[in-house]
Amino acid sequence: MKLAAYRSDGRKQLGVVVGDGSELVPLAAAWKGEGAAPTDLTDLIERGRDAVRSIATEGARRLRVADVTLTAPIPRPRRNVFCIGRNYAEHAAEFAKSGYDATGGASAHPDAAVFFTKPPSTVIGHGELIEPHLKVTSELDYEAELGVIIGRGGRGITRGEALSHVWGYTIINDVTARDLQKRHKQWFLGKGLDTFCPMGPWAVTADEIGDAPLDLRCTVNGEERQSASTSDLIFDIPAIIETLSAGITLEPGDVIATGTPKGVGIGFEPPKFLRPGDVVEITINKIGVLRNQVGAGK
Ligand code: MG
Q1: For the chain: N or C, fewer Cβ within 10 A?
Q2: Band (298; pLDDT cuts 50, 70, 90)
Q3: What is the distance in A from the centroid of ligand 1 to the CA of 283?
Q4: What is the distance between the alpha carbons of residues 170 and 147, in angstroms, rounded to a whole number?
Q5: How far is the CA of 195 from the centre of ligand 1 (A)?
Q6: What would the pLDDT profile of 255-285 be if each residue is shown by its tens digit?
């Protein structure tokens, strides 16, 4: 099932995306569960995986997705978005070669997963503008990533149990100011600026995604930049959850960005940084397309 968060008549709502993705059923019209329908995805997630069984879209009124304003599926996560760096071998190699990795990434293949986070204020939805922050950075870059949404929380989650803690998936653009990432020798600042975490266009439940690897594709103004399979992840989703949860209790609604494949802007010579007006489109099969334009800036 695909769950979208949107605004309609100024109110926050959830909807079930149906058909080819061009229509949605307001959750309020499809909710057969107890009490009022949740209007926040984290609330729905906290009710457990079975809560989606209380949703029946048949015969319910539909809206055109184009007629509502989508927000990120979790527009303001309760805490930072967890992220993994250098998690595809070919990207780790291009990053090491680019000279932008100030964290000692001479080795293309990390021995242990590299973690950082993005604050909740980075999150924007499909169609919202990425701020270019022209006074702060002149090296704006994109990173197409699969986002994992945690369902059941826990600490000390083993590899074997990990996928049972996944509620679903979404698409994330780990927007990065490369000059800040390099200058400050730590990734939080360069990846933590407002609007630097486009997320969406919606969330898809784990059962609808299944176990097969997913294909990621990223274009900028229609030009293909990234194309890869999640089967190429160095640290796969169970490994990420096992490592992260070893000492940090994961909570329902936590979001994990799993890393980006090769083809980011600094992978090219000369680098291809984003400019105001550029359109970044990330497609992951079984999920959809996350599209964001870079704003004009102030
Ligand atoms: Mg990234």
Answers
A1: C
A2: confident
A3: 16
A4: 5
A5: 15
A6: 999 999 999 999 999 999 999 999 999 999 9
**Residues 83-91, mean pLDDT to the nearest whole number:** 91
Q: How far is ligand 1, taken at its centre, from the CA of residue 269, in Å?
A: 20
Distance 37 CA to ligand 1 centre (A): 34
Ligand 1 center from residue 260 Cα (angstroms): 5
Q: Are 274 and 294 in contact (CB under 8 A)?
A: yes
Asked if 233 contacts 87 with a C-beta cutoff of 8 angstroms, the reply is yes
CA distance 136 to 108: 29
Distance from the CA of 53 to the center of ligand 1, in angstroms? Answer: 33
- Going by DSSP bridges, is the β-strand pair 11-18/140-141 parallel, antiparallel, or unpaired? unpaired
Q: Is 134 exposed, middle or buried (0-12, 13-18, 19+ CB in 10 A)?
A: middle
Give tens-digit pLDDT for 42-82.
999 999 888 999 999 999 999 999 999 999 999 999 999 99
* 176 CA from centroid of ligand 1 (Å): 8
What digits encode the pLDDT tens for the residues 225-259? 999 999 999 999 999 999 999 999 999 999 999 99
Torsion of CA 82, 124, 290, 151, to 10 degrees: 40
